[in-house]
Specification:
By secondary structure, the protein is mostly beta strands. Helix content is 9%, strand content 39%. It is built from three helices and eleven strands, in the order βββαβαββββββαβ. Strands 1, 2, 3, 4, 5 and 6 form a six-stranded antiparallel sheet that branches. Strands 7-8-11 form a three-stranded antiparallel sheet, covered by helices on one side. Strands 9-10 form a two-stranded antiparallel ribbon. The protein is elongated.
C-alpha cells in the first residue's frame, strides 16, 4: 500500500487487523515494533524490551513515516513499514544507531489505542477534542479562565459548573481540569476521561 504520492513510503500488511476503525490524530496508540536498517541489522525493538511503545499519532512525536503509516492500521494489524529518509531521520540520521540518509524497515503491530491526548503520560487523564478551538493560543499558569463542565460516571450526572472563573495555579481545582485547560484553546469543547 502506497502511503505517499511518490510511493516511497509504503506498507505491506502481514496480518490483517480487526474491524474498520483506525486511530485518529491525537489518539494514544500502543505498538510493538522491530526497526531494521537496509542491511537487516536491528537498531531498536520494543519486543526485546517486552514493553509496548506508546505515542500520540499524528502529533509529530515520532518519525513522519510512523505518523502516516500507523494511522492507517487497524487493531491487531501487523505490517511492514518502509520509511525512506524523507519520512525517517533524513540527512542527520539518529546517531549512533541510524546513519544519515537511511531507509528504515519496521515490523509494527498495533495493539490498541485510546482516543484523545494522554495528559499524564500513564493514560490516567485522556482529553478528546469534540469541537476545535480558535487560533493556536492556550492559557498558561496565572491566567484567568472561564469554563463550564459536566461530570458523569456510569452514564449518570454527578456534578456541573457553568461559567466557572478560575485563576490557573491559584484557584483550587481538580488536577484533570487544570491539565486539560492548559492544553485547550478558546471556545474548544473537549471530553476528559479520568
Amino acid at each position: 500500500v502506497k502511503l505517499c504520492a511518490d510511493g516511497s513510503l509504503y506498507k505491506e500488511i502481514v496480518t490483517c487487523g480487526k474491524g474498520i476503525e483506525t486511530p485518529k490524530r491525537g489518539d494514544t496508540v500502543f505498538v510493538h515494533y522491530i526497526g531494521k536498517l537496509d542491511d537487516g541489522s536491528v537498531f531498536d525493538s520494543s519486543r526485546e524490551r517486552n514493553e509496548p511503545f506508546r505515542f500520540p499519532v499524528g502529533r509529530g512525536r515520532v518519525i513522519k513515516g510512523w505518523d502516516l503509516g500507523i494511522s492507517t492500521m487497524r487493531k491487531g494489524e501487523v505490517a511492514k513499514l518502509v520509511c525512506p529518509p524523507l519520512y525517517a531521520y533524513g540527512a542527520r540520521g539518529s546517531p549512533p544507531k541510524i546513519p544519515p540518509e537511511s531507509t528504515l524497515h519496521f515490523e509494527v503491530e498495533i495493539l490498541k489505542w485510546i482516543s484523545g491526548d494522554d495528559l499524564t503520560g500513564d493514560t490516567g487523564v485522556m482529553k478528546q477534542i469534540l469541537i476545535k478551538g480558535d487560533k493556536w493560543q492556550t492559557p498558561k499558569e496565572g491566567d484567568e479562565v472561564t469554563f463550564s463542565w459536566k461530570g458523569t460516571a456510569d452514564g449518570k450526572k454527578f456534578g456541573y459548573g457553568t461559567n466557572v472563573v478560575a485563576s490557573l495555579g491559584k484557584t483550587e481545582m481538580v488536577d484533570a481540569f487544570k491539565r486539560a485547560i492548559l492544553k485547550m484553546k478558546k471556545k474548544e469543547k473537549s471530553k476528559l476521561t479520568v
